[in-house]
């Protein structure tokens, strides 16, 4: 019988996930956090895609993508995996789901920002074909530098 972690189900977030999204954000990030009010708005925002892993009301991973009018590039704004869920491939699966959602939205590319000292995330993005575009000095709330990464999204890929 497959373990909880071997069966990876990714779905759209719902209002029932709000508390769990806030808790995941608080546990994962020390600054530049998404507020409860912002999460509530993003759940139903037509210009965003919010994919999660977990049962209703329990989220152990989330990916938030934004779409801009008149832009062919989506922006992966946040990708978070709870500490006790890491190592199960959720980051890569969520990234794939985010890319699929962006393609379905008509986007031909994805961009993202990541802290220069976040080696785990940088390795994930690089493994999945993202390339470094630019360094972003003082990009984060605490003054930390970031990298901008990008990737072309092949049409018809899944």
Distance from first to last alpha carbon: 27 Å
The radius of gyration is 15 Å
pLDDT < 50 stretches: 1-6
By CATH, the topology is Aminopeptidase
Total DSSP helices: 4
Roughly what percent helix? 25-40%
What is the C-level CATH assignment? Alpha Beta
Order of helices and strands: EHHEEEHEHEE
Main pleated-sheet profile: 7 strands, mixed
Number of domains: 1
By DSSP, the count of extended strands is 7
Structural class: alpha+beta
Shape assignment: globular
- The CATH superfamily bears the name Gcn5-related N-acetyltransferase (GNAT)
CATH architecture, by name, is 3-Layer(aba) Sandwich
Strand order of the largest sheet: 1-2-3-4-5-7-6
Strand content: 25-35%
Name the average pLDDT: 90
List the helices and strands and how they pair.
Blueprint: E1 10-12, H1 18-28, H2 36-44, E2 48-53, E3 61-67, E4 73-81, H3 90-104, E5 109-115, H4 119-127, E6 131-136, E7 146-152
Parallel strand pairs: 4-5
Antiparallel strand pairs: 1-2, 2-3, 3-4, 5-7, 6-7
């Amino acid at each position: 019988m497959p373990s909880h972690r071997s069966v990876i189900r990714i779905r759209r977030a719902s209002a029932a996930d709000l508390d769990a999204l806030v808790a995941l954000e608080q546990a994962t990030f020390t600054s530049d956090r998404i507020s409860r009010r912002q999460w509530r708005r993003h759940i139903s925002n037509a210009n965003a895609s919010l994919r999660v892993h977990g049962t209703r009301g329990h989220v152990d991973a989330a990916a938030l993508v934004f779409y801009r009018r008149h832009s062919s590039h989506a922006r992966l704004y946040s990708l978070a995996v709870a500490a006790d869920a890491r190592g199960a491939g959720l980051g890569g699966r969520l990234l794939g789901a985010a890319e699929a959602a962006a393609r379905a939205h008509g986007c031909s590319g994805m961009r993202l920002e990541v802290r220069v000292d976040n080696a785990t995330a940088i390795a994930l993005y690089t493994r999945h074909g993202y390339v470094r575009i630019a360094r972003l000095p003082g990009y984060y709330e605490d003054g930390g530098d970031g990298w901008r990464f990008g990737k072309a999204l092949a049409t018809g890929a899944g």
